[in-house]
Amino acid sequence: MSVRETPIVAVTRCGIGVFDKKWWAARLQLLKAITVPSLSRFKGQNFTWYIVLDSAIPTQVYEELHSIVSAGAQGFVRFVFVESNSQTRDAIMNAAKAVVPPSKRVAVLRIDDDDAVAADFFDNVFDEIAKEPDQPAVVSMAKGFALNAPDQEVGNLSYASHPCNTVFYGRLTELDRVMFQNHVKWLSVAKRLGYRAVASDVGSPQFLYTYHKQADGSYEKRVGGIDTWRKISAADVERFGIDLEALREWVDLQASMPATIGLTWRRAQGELWKMEQLKASMKQLKREIVKTNSSIFDPTVPFLYVYQPMQKAKVKAGRIKFTGLTNNGATVSLHVTGKTGIYREMASVKLDADSGDFALAGNFNVGEWNIRIISEFDSEKGKQRKQLDYKIHAR
Questions:
Q1: Coiled-coil regions in this chain (predicted)?
Q2: Residue-averaged pLDDT of the chain
């Protein structure tokens, strides 16, 4: 396969963790003016654009977003939903995985929802990749423009290793090692890993990095960092695919917008940290599931499940019977606690060597009970143990 036939995946995070409809109104207009028309020009290529959204995005906002994207980029856009930014990494990797299997190479661009690339951007990127097509690479087209969106002006900007101008090329495992580092370290990490690290500032401008007052950063400081500004030209509009009429509508809209109070992605920092902790726990549980079900024919791998009563079941108080299945010959025990949190053993049974079915019973008063069922057995790999914790409600 020719390098230029490599699938391209663009991934854009869009308003994750933000639910203010006034904020979204201006953001969607900017997306409509800049990113959607810019990326829509690549629909004839092997190109897929994944837009990552919060699962709790307001319905009205999603309706409008879907309408904007359908009008400008229908056919190659996919929406992905996450619970928080902590899941973005998985969303990006899953987007690439949905396009290519692990053995194939892919080119990934992590572009923001207010930036653009030039019409020949991917042609120039693949020119660089084609020099050593068997090598994983991080290619950054460092020559571009800053766009002062409120004033509709552009200025020269040299900025290597930024999301709007950097493409990651290689197999999924290779990309995973570099793509989620801090963006300022992408090229240095690629070089350390033995990948090609390219920062090209030759030729015409390749990216458009937008400055506006709604971003999480100082608009004034960014604008002041550009030496010379000029009005956006017809050539700029054509090069980056900007919808100039939509941009002018955005200018009028954002002029009436109040200043954002605080950085949007930090305003619920405590809750986000807790979600990151939960994500780590989820990953550990997933590893346990993979371990258990990767050897379903191996009798030494422990497993345990109940038939009844199930999680959160409402059952009649009195004598309650617990049935389930585990490894043949295991010892299965039933442990119970109420409000104290101190478990006591209520029943146990030693199973026959040719059976894994178990039945345990105990007397329960009215109330909510924490159930713990433990299965243990010896194997040539040592002592094996599986534990099942859940709740039931006796009434």
A1: 268-295
A2: 94
